[in-house]
């Protein structure tokens, strides 16, 4: 191992080139619930970070701790290179958008957006202009003079976003800002948030438990579980090379076949090259499996599963078929919605699309000789 000595000055440069630094952050709530457990993050300016994970994994807590709305039990928070661990929320250069953003009911859209600037004592002329620009940017021009009660849910949420952005914060924190908005508008607002963020280059943290939203928005995807970071990387990488069995199942619902009892399901070539005692799980995505009409057609395929169909879900153009393998394991395959399949099916996959995990659920990387270089 090579060691590099970093002088104090260099270390300073490294940390000040981050926009947000979270060091060994732990949060234990009164009563003993450990919501965060040693979280580490260093985020470059302008990055759109998505925090993804199941309910209760600590996403909101992490956001509130960065904002200073919760005191942390251990660790440090740095913003723009400065330690802000003990600073008040208002002195951290962060703005937060919540699920239900409270707007002033008696103020117009323009006045709502202008309000934070008024609080910050920005001169009247300048703050009017900035609020107007923000209103236009968010396509709220036509309703500028309306009051919140006259707006749709999506418009109200945009006013909330405008109010957070108008102060030009260094860091924008968003906690499931679109979860109360219907699907169609959500897609539109999602694109708008991304457009605004790119334009302003504001470092953004966005909490969601919606995997499609996470993949659509993230420059960097942080998957959390039980107060810890399970995987952190570009969304493509997290999707294509899930570091753990948990991430693989959570993001995209990968099938997981238990290999601890029998490894007969594995392609012989692969089985021969792996240390069998470490093998725990074989993962394959429903969209990487194909149904073959007759078992003979499976000859030469690298993974072959025979199973009994148990049910199906229509997804739109596609259908998710649930089946049970001969080894009595559950799996799903995606087919075209119009495709008909028999009750007894044979499904196949290429070895490039197989993911292996050890008995502890960690990815066995570099051990897929048949797929090297393809991922
Ligand atoms: N004020 C609090 N006091 C005690 N426990 C809390 C408090 N806030 C959150 N928790 C607990 O801490 C854990 C993490 O909660 P948090 O809200 O951060 O999760 P989350 O990932 O944002 O979940 P969700 O997606 O459901 O909002 C949960 O077990 C939760 O019950």
Automatic annotation (TrEMBL):
It comes from the Bacteria. The keyword Nucleotide-binding applies. Residues 20-251 form the ABC transporter domain. GO terms for molecular function: ATP binding. InterPro entries: AAA+_ATPase, ABC_transporter-like_ATP-bd, ABC_transporter-like_CS, ABC_transpr_FbpC, ABC_transpr_MalK/UgpC-like, Mo/tungstate-bd_C_term_dom, NA-bd_OB-fold, P-loop_NTPase. It holds the Pfam family ABC_tran. Keywords: ATP-binding, Cell membrane, Membrane, Nucleotide-binding, Translocase, Transport. This is ABC transporter ATP-binding protein. It comes from Streptomyces rugosispiralis.
